[in-house]
Each structure stands twice: as structure tokens, then as C-alpha cells.
Amino acid sequence: MKEFANLLLAVCAFAVAACNQPVKEGSSAAAVDTTAERVVIEKQVSDLTAALLSGSRDSLNNLTSDNLSYGHSNGDMQTKSGFVDSLATGNWGFNQINIADQQVVNIDGNTAIVRQKLYGEAQNKGKDPAKLALGVLMVWKKEGDKWLLYARQAFKLLSPNDVPSVK
């Protein structure tokens, strides 16, 4: 019985030691180069900001996943087609955007989380422009070799009267 207990203890010690070994570069479980991926994601976010301002249908389609879930700060939700169509047709759009405190929070495999503050002005067709002060959470997903916006949720930060002027 004592020999069995010693054998069991040795197997457990070996298993614990094996689980604590660092992953070697080039192995299938090795982490992605997050520095390089971070640069690519930041470029995609910058391109998305430009597309939000221009309303370019092609750019918006190229930057977003077909499974996009786009949440507005007022609670409205849109799919990719609704989101792209509303901007491309001018039914809704941004007049000004100023991004602050942007950070790529986490990159895990083919998924990345980006947070930012968005200050600016948006307008629904036929209505007066409205100032915005939003917190934005975005989930980017790598589909094939390209990072695409998979989900976005905005929430109000300040009363519109407290919004700083936009450059």
C-alpha cells in the first residue's frame, strides 16, 4: 500500500510539473504576437472612425463582420445591414468625432476588446444635430486574416450640456 501511495504521489508531482512548463515558441499553443496584432487592430479602429464620418458603404462593409451587433447609447440595436444602410444613405450619421482614452484592453486568440470615449456630434436626417459623450466597448474578431468589428455597444457618459467642444 505504501508503494502505491508513493507511486501516486510521484505521478501527481509529475503532472503538476508538466502543467507548469512554459509554452515554447512555435508550439501550437504559443501566444500570438499581441504587439503586431495590436497595431493592426488600432488601424482598423482608426479606419472605422473615418468610415463612420464618411458613411462609405464599402469601407463600413469591409470593416464589419456579417454577424455585427451594433448597440446605440439609446438602446437601439442594429445588424450589419441596418448599421451600414443608415450611415450610407444619410438617414443617420456623425458630423464630428473625437476619440479619447482608447485602449486595446485584451487580445485573446482571434478576439480583441477595445474601449474608447467618443465625443462628437451626430444627426438623424431632418433633425437637429446632437452632441455626444459616449463610452464605447467594441469586440473585434479575426475572421480569416482580417480583424472585423463583431460587436459594439455605446453608453452615455455625460449630459450633452457638459460635452467639451470638439476640435
UniProtKB/TrEMBL annotation:
Against PROSITE patterns, the record matches this protein to:
PROKAR_LIPOPROTEIN
InterPro entries given for it?
DUF4440, NTF2-like_dom_sf
Q: Which residues form the signal peptide?
A: 1-17
The DUF4440 domain sits at 41-149
Establish whether keyword Signal is in the entry. Answer: yes
Task: Tell me any Pfam family this protein matches.
Answer: DUF4440
Q: Which domain of life is it from?
A: Bacteria
Name of this protein: Uncharacterized protein DUF4440
Q: Which organism is it from?
A: Mucilaginibacter auburnensis
> What phylogenetic lineage does the species belong to?
Bacteria, Pseudomonadati, Bacteroidota, Sphingobacteriia, Sphingobacteriales
